[in-house]
């Protein structure tokens, strides 16, 4: 057998291949549905990942925003209302 004969034999239609391609319309529909389902899954996972990332970042920002405990005991820090002038 030459290479051409082997190639032709591989591409020969068998009973199973003919049966599978008889209902080509439903095969296309199944393929489209599975593709849509896969895309929806990827979008859902990306959305969940973004939400979790935002939640984790907000938790870290809240924990880092606590006032420092390195104060001198007995000394209270008072914020001024601005510079004083002679009229005040």
Q: Quick recap of the structure?
A:
With 88 residues, the protein is mainly α. It is built from three helices and no strands.
Describe the structure.
This protein has 88 residues and is mostly helical. It has a domain of 61 residues. Helix content is 65%, strand content 0%. It has 3 helices and no strands. It is rod-shaped and about 105 Å long.
Quick tags:
0% strand
Total of DSSP H or I helical runs spanning 4+ residues = 3
What overall geometry do the principal axes of the alpha carbons give? rod-shaped
Helix content: 55-70%
N-to-C series of helices and strands: HHH
Low-pLDDT stretches: none
* Mean residue pLDDT: 77
Estimated radius of gyration: 36 Å
Content of β-strand = under 5%
The end-to-end span amounts to 109 Å
The largest sheet is:
none
Total beta-strand segments: 0
Could you say which structural class the secondary elements and strand pairing correspond to? mainly alpha
List the topology elements.
Layout: H1 3-10, H2 15-22, H3 24-64
